């Protein structure tokens, strides 16, 4: 084999690879298809920074036929696990928190201009049942409209008292701590309480209230 | 990818909540503003926005659906479940759900975006027909860049299916945002090259290759267009045109090595070996891991050979052989290490992101000897997809491990509960047998009747104090005694006194009567409240008693069934994990094997060339050989390292470009 031939074959192989890569330009993070063989010198490796140059808009290129059936099997398996997980969740909740004794406390936040929540402490019948420290992302999730189920537990029927202490930063970035309390009647069914943090624009202050969901 | 995930999920969820505060008419591409009316739907959204693992969010969502805790958001929750399945890479399930849910009731914009993301996932997984079908379900235009991306995806799917004419037609009639336009033009250019329409391809690729752009991504795209065009011209035996395109590739970009190599060949094609050495020598000092650099180890001495510098050529060949041998040794070690079976665990332990599912990608490789050879693998979609699946499998297995421990706990809990029931049930049954509330209600009824009789008969003495009742009784007895006592002054006086006393006593009793009736009625009402409370408790006890055998038994049965499912799934996951592991190790070993094979081939070429140089150097001077044909069959005996007369002839025409489909 002379180098002319070597160059020729190299060029052909490189061309094929390049075209395969170029065709994926818009949809692959790293355009290459390693296909060098023992007698076809070829340009195959994509420098590491090719990945960095990859499009954020890119999707990965397609999967080969050989792995398709494995993918199908895995999807079926994953679905089985999701179903199982759901059944376990249902069992756990029904076992640990039967509906006739269940009490769930939720937290919601509207706007959040006057208060940045750092932590929340819950007391039921003067006993601390929850103390939760929020990450910025969790607080942001509340501001976006999420409603966190902060506490779930069991209470016997009758009169109870819930006290919530909210800590965080208030207006002018000052440390701010407030409490809210509610007396509620626990009946036969599950009881839901919502701790609501809202902005009182007129007073430029946050407002904390507890709603009893009948 | 994170952006894509956020879009995919925000597609359905974000619009529901963010727009709560805005009462304006919703845009047609969003779901109508929804005030969260079900606390549990809010909880699902919170988990989603707070970045909790998608599988946990999906589990909670499905459980809440099972309990019907989100009656006001049934449709939203179902759409959200679909997008979570999509996010977890379960595109089949997501597709099934979307097909059922994305009806005309869902705003067209939301529907279109859902189909778009589904098409994208199916494309990535190689389901081109499904991908195209999903794209066809999009009606009208998507908003912003998504429309450009959609068209680009359509073109890519068509190209993957080998439908180049349709792809060209699609691209030719398309105009979009500049970035996506550049991508589309690049694809169009490649499609044109495949159809041997070089003039058209040059026009399109040059347009991309001369774009005035900034940013890593677009600069790389520009380089790629120039590289593609340069090599296409090399293939078309037009080194001059190739050089123009290749010279536009940046020296610091990701395609610099291949561009330098190509520029060298273009110069060699122009028989300017001196100029060819410039880029090749630049390459020679770069990382040998790069295939283009490896090529340059052969190209440099070859060029020296063409220039008649045999000594330098020999020196470079010797150096190349030594480098190839060393690198091959390192590759052997790496292949052995991969074969030991710990590759995937090492790869995954290097990743610190907690994300699962389709949007995850491995970016960082572990600090291990074999890592330097695996970067090409990272760029390989099969490997990345396989790795995602392996990672998901590992995560799911650990999840099930924890759940199995929970099952043991629940089992113990049920057992304890059963023991407690066994102790308490006899007492409970004895209590329930007394039917105490019925007796209490009967007693309360008789008290009420008595009070009614007292009130109706104005029996004022009946509600007096015990002293008053005693006094009243004594007055009554004295009255009876005096009635039959005869007559006499003393008796008449006594009767008068008794009458007076009775009158005073009656007056007192009568004055307090109404208040006392009221007080009794109030006591009865308090009694009623207590009786009701007792009755409620009694009912609850009765209900609990009735449910005891089935309740604990049912839980025990459910736990047993779930434990069985966990065990079975763990086995299936382990098996799938092994399969996946084997497949990925095979891919990695194939990749490294290919690298090693390439090096071995280069080494052979270098040895032949070197031997030829030595042979020529030791052989007596012969008349100059006739120039070989450019594309003569190669023979080991004539490696051609030593330049005959026109050794730099351009290589033979390359075969038509391959299809883009793998």
Please compute the radius of gyration of chain B using only Cα atoms: 46 Å
**What structural category do the secondary elements of chain A indicate?**
alpha+beta
For the termini of chain A, the CA-CA separation is 87 Å
Flag low-confidence runs of chain A: 1-62
So, CATH architecture of the domain at 156-307 and 646-662 in chain B? Alpha Horseshoe
Could you say what the CATH topology of the domain at 156-307 and 646-662 in chain B is called? Serine Threonine Protein Phosphatase 5, Tetratricopeptide repeat
Low-confidence runs of chain B: 1-8, 12-30, 623-662
Number of self-contained structural domains of chain A: 2
* CATH topology value of the largest domain in chain A: Immunoglobulin-like
Report the β-strand fraction of chain A as a percent range: 25-35%
Report on the structure:
The complex is a heterodimer of chains A (214) and B (662). Chain A is of the alpha+beta class. Chain A folds into two domains: 3-52, no CATH class; 102-213, Immunoglobulin-like, CATH 2.60.40. Chain A contains four helices and eight strands, in the order H-H-H-E-E-E-H-E-E-E-E-E. The longest helix of chain A has 32 residues, at 65-96. Chain A is flat, with a radius of gyration of 30 Å. The model of chain A is unreliable at 1-62 (pLDDT under 50). By secondary structure, chain B is mostly helical. Mean pLDDT of chain B is 80; it is low at 1-8, 12-30 and 623-662. Chain B contains 23 helices and no strands. The relative contact order of chain B is 0.07. Chain B has helices spanning 2-10, 14-18, 39-49, 54-66, 74-87, 91-101, 108-124, 128-136, 145-160, 164-172, 178-194, 198-209, 216-235, 239-246, 256-269, 273-284, 291-306, 310-349, 375-378, 381-433, 436-456, 466-483, 489-618. Among the domains of chain B are: 1-143, Serine Threonine Protein Phosphatase 5, Tetratricopeptide repeat; 156-307 and 646-662, Serine Threonine Protein Phosphatase 5, Tetratricopeptide repeat. At the A-B interface, helix 1, helix 2, helix 3, strand 1 and helix 4 of A face helix 2, helix 3, helix 4, helix 6 and helix 7 of B.
């Amino acid at each position: 084999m002379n180098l002319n031939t070597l160059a020729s074959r190299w060029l052909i192989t490189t061309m094929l690879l390049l075209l395969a890569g170029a065709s994926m330009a818009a949809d692959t993070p790293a355009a290459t298809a390693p296909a060098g063989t023992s007698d076809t010198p070829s340009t195959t490796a994509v420098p590491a920074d090719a990945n960095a140059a990859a499009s954020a808009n890119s999707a990965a290129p397609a999967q080969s036929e050989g792995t398709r059936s494995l993918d199908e099997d895995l999807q079926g398996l994953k679905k089985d696990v999701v179903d199982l997980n759901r059944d376990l969740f249902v069992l756990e909740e029904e076992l640990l928190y039967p509906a006739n004794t269940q009490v769930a406390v939720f937290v919601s936040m509207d706007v959040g201009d006057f208060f940045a929540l750092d932590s929340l402490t819950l007391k039921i019948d003067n006993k601390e049942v929850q103390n939760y420290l929020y990450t910025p992302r969790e607080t942001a999730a509340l501001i976006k409209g999420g409603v966190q189920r902060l506490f779930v537990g069991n209470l016997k029927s009758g009169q109870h008292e819930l006290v919530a202490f909210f800590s965080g930063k208030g207006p002018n970035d000052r440390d701010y701590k407030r409490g809210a309390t509610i007396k509620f009647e626990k009946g036969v069914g599950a009881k839901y309480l919502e701790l609501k943090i809202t902005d009182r624009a007129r007073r430029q202050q946050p407002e904390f209230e507890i709603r009893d969901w009948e | 990818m994170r952006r894509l995930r956020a879009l995919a999920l925000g597609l359905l969820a974000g619009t529901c909540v963010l727009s709560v505060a805005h009462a304006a008419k919703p845009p047609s591409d969003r779901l109508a503003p929804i005030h969260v009316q079900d606390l549990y739907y809010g909880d699902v959204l919170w988990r989603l926005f707070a970045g909790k693992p998608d599988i946990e969010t999906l589990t909670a969502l499905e459980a809440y659906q099972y309990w019907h805790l989100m009656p006001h958001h049934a449709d939203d929750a179902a759409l959200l479940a679909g997008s979570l399945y999509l996010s977890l890479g379960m595109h089949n399930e997501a597709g099934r759900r979307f097909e059922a849910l994305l009806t005309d009731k869902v705003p067209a914009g939301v529907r279109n975006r859902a189909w778009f993301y589904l098409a994208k996932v199916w494309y990535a997984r190689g389901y081109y027909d499904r991908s195209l079908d999903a794209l066809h379900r999009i009606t009208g235009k998507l908003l912003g860049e998504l429309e450009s991306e959609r068209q680009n995806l359509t073109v890519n799917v068509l190209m993957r299916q080998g439908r180049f004419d349709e792809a060209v037609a699609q691209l030719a009639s398309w105009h979009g945002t500049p970035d996506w336009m550049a991508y589309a033009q690049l694809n169009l250019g490649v499609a044109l090259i495949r159809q041997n329409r070089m003039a058209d391809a040059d026009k399109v690729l040059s347009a991309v290759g001369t774009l005035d752009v900034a940013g890593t991504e677009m600069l790389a795209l520009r380089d790629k267009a120039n590289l593609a065009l340069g090599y296409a011209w090399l293939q078309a035996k037009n080194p001059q045109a190739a050089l123009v395109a290749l010279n536009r590739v940046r020296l610091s970009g990701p395609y610099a090595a291949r561009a330098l190599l190509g520029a060298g060949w273009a110069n060699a094609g122009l028989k300017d070996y001196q100029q060819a050495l410039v880029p090749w020598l630049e390459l020679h000092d770069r990382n040998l891991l790069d295939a283009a650099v490896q090529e340059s180890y052969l190209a440099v001495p070859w060029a020296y050979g063409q220039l008649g510098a045999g000594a330098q050529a020999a020196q470079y060949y010797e150096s190349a052989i030594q480098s190839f041998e060393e690198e091959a040794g390192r590759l052997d070690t790496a292949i052995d290490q991969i074969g030991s079976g710990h590759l995937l665990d090492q790869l995954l332990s290097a990743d610190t992101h907690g994300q699962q599912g389709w949007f995850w990608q491995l970016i960082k490789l572990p600090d291990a000897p074999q890592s330097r050879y695996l970067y090409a693998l990272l760029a390989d979609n099969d490997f990345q997809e396989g790795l995602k699946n392996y990672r998901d499998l590992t995560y799911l297995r650990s999840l099930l491990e924890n759940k199995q421990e929970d099952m043991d706990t629940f089992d113990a809990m049920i057992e304890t509960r059963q023991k407690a029931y066994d102790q308490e049930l006899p007492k409970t049954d004895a209590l329930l047998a007394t039917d105490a509330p019925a007796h209490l209600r009967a007693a309360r009824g008789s008290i009420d009747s008595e009070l009614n009789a007292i009130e109706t008969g104005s029996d004022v003495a009946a509600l007096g104090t015990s002293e008053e009742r005693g006094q009243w009784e004594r007055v009554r007895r004295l009255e009876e005694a005096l009635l039959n006592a005869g007559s006499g002054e003393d008796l008449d006086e006594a009767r008068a006194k008794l009458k007076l006393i009775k009158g005073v006593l009656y007056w007192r009793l009568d004055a307090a009567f109404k208040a006392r009736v009221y007080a009794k009625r109030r006591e009865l009402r308090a009694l009623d409240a207590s009786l009701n409370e007792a009755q409620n408790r009694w009912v609850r006890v009765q209900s609990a008693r009735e449910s005891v055998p089935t309740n604990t038994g049912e839980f025990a049965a459910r736990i047993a069934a779930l434990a069985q499912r966990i065990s079975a799934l763990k086995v299936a996951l382990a098996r799938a994990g092994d399969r996946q592991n084997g497949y990925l190790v095979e891919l990695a070993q194939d990749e490294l094997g290919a690298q090693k094979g390439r090096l071995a081939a280069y080494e052979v070429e270098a040895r032949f060339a070197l031997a030829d140089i030595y042979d020529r150097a030791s052989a007596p001077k012969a008349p100059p050989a006739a120039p070989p044909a450019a594309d003569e069959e190669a023979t080991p005996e004539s490696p051609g390292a030593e330049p005959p007369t026109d050794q730099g002839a351009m290589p033979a025409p390359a075969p038509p470009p391959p299809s883009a489909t793998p």
